[in-house]
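Hey, can you fold this one?
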Amino acid sequence: MRLLLDTHVLIWWDAGEALRPEASDAIRSASEVYVSAASAWEIAIKTALGKLQSTRSVAMVVADNAFVELPVHVRHTQALADLPALHSDPFDRLLVAQAAVEGLTLLTRDPKVAAYPGRVLLA
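Sure. Predicted structure:
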């Protein structure tokens, strides 16, 4: 399985917070685990606004876990036009589009994100 972690799952994984056992097992056994540049951007913005305290950089988390960086490409942003308006968060919508375009399973705890068509695993 090839996974894309949503931003919250990335933060919780790094902090050692409990995920559903199926989600933790999926991360450990996945052939590839991706982290989007959109998640790094979201964390940077929320940290700058004081909404989040970040103790480690996303680059460090990616490197320490042998995750794969997923850049944002034009094809990802174009896929946003095909998504139904189920969620207003632009970062989450971009992650959904990236997962669809790249054929990845999106790992999320957000039920609004899980309502999109495509492969989703609840964390």
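The chain has a mean pLDDT of 95. Let me know if you want another pass with a different chain boundary.
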